[in-house]
Amino acid sequence: MLRFWSLLSGLAPSIHVWDAITKQTLSILRCSHAKGVGYVNFSATGKLLLSVGVEPEHTITVWRWQEGTKVTSKGGHAERIFVVEFRPDSDTQFVSVGIKHIKFWTLVGCSLMYKKGVIGSVEDGRMQTMLSVAFGANNLTFTGAINGDVYVWREHFLVRVVAKAHCGPVFAMYTTLRDGLIVTGGKERPTKEGGAVKLWDQEMKRCRAFQLETGQPVENVRSVCRGKGKILVGTKDGEIIEVGEKNAASNTMINGHTRGGIWGLATHPFKDVFISASDDGTIRIWDLADKKLLNKVSLGHPAKCTSYSPNGEMVSIGMENGEFIVLLVNSLTVWGKKRDRSIAIQDIRFSPDNQFLAVGSVESAVDFYDLSLGPSLNRIGYCKDIPGFVIQIDFSADSKHIQVSTSTYTRQVHDVPSGKLVTEQPIAERITWATWTSILGDEVLGVWPRNAEKADVNCACVSHAGFNLVTGDDFGLIKLFDFPCSEKFAKHKRYFGHSAHVTNIRFSCDDKYVISAGGSDCSLFVWKCQ
């Protein structure tokens, strides 16, 4: 049976154990870790589970997870613990490593005992910050250090240092007792002799380096695993790559954004394709049907918003530095770019007639550009009198108006391209909107829960058919409403998956899917509408 777990932090940290095949929850462990769980690991037989808290004592707890009971716990170390691993042939012995320490632990009955690693007089040996652990036969332990060395221990004594196993930190190690070979992953620029993934013999005296072929050099590996002639590699850039041991062929299985929130999200007007924009400085184009990455563009600055043109031929991106860029979809080359603002662009939209581009910023303004005048992108008008920074923009169906939602939680309607504020309520009420992504207005009043703070609901989107509304909130929830949603505390369905702070949400072109973007979890979720 395959098992995997989730780590939850917050008011009531817990550990959830699932069956990886059936996806059924097998156990929920209510933790004594007050501030969260930093690491977990199963014992050799799978009967015991280790957990490490992120509180100052970094408490190590041993669980009989199937029974939901705690065996014992003990303070792990005053400094941060990065990894705790059971020996692959034991339910009683494990090793913890972290900032400037290594400890060798034994579970004796219901008590935990440990011995500190002893450096002794080994050449080049000094206590390093250790990031990873692997095990060998004859009670050998291997630990990967932050400076690129690997330390070899017998029992709790250092016996040898493998100097510069990697050029940078050794973030990951993996071994099986079946053949004793050791895989390491670290930070290293690919060369003919070296790479970020290496396969070593049982004593770490000889190795083979692998070049990971993904279209771009892979210099930073954070996780490795090995089995059935394959090595699985997890990278800093959110990729999972499968590498053949014999032919060294690379197959990228999973792509994703790297560190930083995902803010921008847009779906193609008539294809099962969507685009995401992130603080990692990239936009990524995804295929909904095949669930794969189609292309990636590195922009050099964090990207905050994006949109497709109505004909699907252009895509626009708003940047954190106040710049915006228009790309041609077929070639992903720059058609035009401009920087009329000095701080972040919050939302960007093409008009339905494909003539105007509206660019909303933190500078409490929406600028208009006439695309028919060419790639010079000269500003032809802008909205004034916007209280607070811009959150969302929507065009009217006739391209003559926009609605603007602001950080002061006011919704305003302006003429396009003059930017004049529409003050006559009857005129505003007669406007038909091409899209609706605003979290404000009578039409979406019911999305706000009881006792909600104004910042709780972050994003919304009405389906193209106009019958449904989805929202994302600060609690990681996706909610589905009928539209319009004008009654307070409207009935809805809730869907879980994201961690805190859903940043954006969109329906696909045919309303068969909903795509949501996460801030803290750096993830994109695709939901099927039934």
UniProtKB/TrEMBL annotation:
<dbReference type="InterPro" id="IPR015943">
    <property type="entry name" value="WD40/YVTN_repeat-like_dom_sf"/>
</dbReference>
<dbReference type="InterPro" id="IPR055442">
    <property type="entry name" value="Beta-prop_EML-like_2nd"/>
</dbReference>
<dbReference type="InterPro" id="IPR036322">
    <property type="entry name" value="WD40_repeat_dom_sf"/>
</dbReference>
<dbReference type="Pfam" id="PF23409">
    <property type="entry name" value="Beta-prop_EML"/>
</dbReference>
<feature type="domain" description="EML-like first beta-propeller">
    <location>
        <begin position="12"/>
        <end position="242"/>
    </location>
</feature>
<dbReference type="GO" id="GO:0008017">
    <property type="term" value="F:microtubule binding"/>
</dbReference>
<keyword id="KW-0853">WD repeat</keyword>
<feature type="signal peptide">
    <location>
        <begin position="1"/>
        <end position="20"/>
    </location>
</feature>
<dbReference type="InterPro" id="IPR001680">
    <property type="entry name" value="WD40_rpt"/>
</dbReference>
<feature type="repeat" description="WD">
    <location>
        <begin position="262"/>
        <end position="296"/>
    </location>
</feature>
<feature type="domain" description="EML-like second beta-propeller">
    <location>
        <begin position="262"/>
        <end position="529"/>
    </location>
</feature>
<keyword id="KW-0732">Signal</keyword>
<dbReference type="Pfam" id="PF23414">
    <property type="entry name" value="Beta-prop_EML_2"/>
</dbReference>
<protein>
    <submittedName>
        <fullName>Echinoderm microtubule-associated protein-like 6</fullName>
    </submittedName>
</protein>
<feature type="repeat" description="WD">
    <location>
        <begin position="495"/>
        <end position="530"/>
    </location>
</feature>
<dbReference type="GO" id="GO:0005874">
    <property type="term" value="C:microtubule"/>
</dbReference>
<keyword id="KW-0677">Repeat</keyword>
<dbReference type="InterPro" id="IPR055439">
    <property type="entry name" value="Beta-prop_EML_1st"/>
</dbReference>
<dbReference type="InterPro" id="IPR050630">
    <property type="entry name" value="WD_repeat_EMAP"/>
</dbReference>
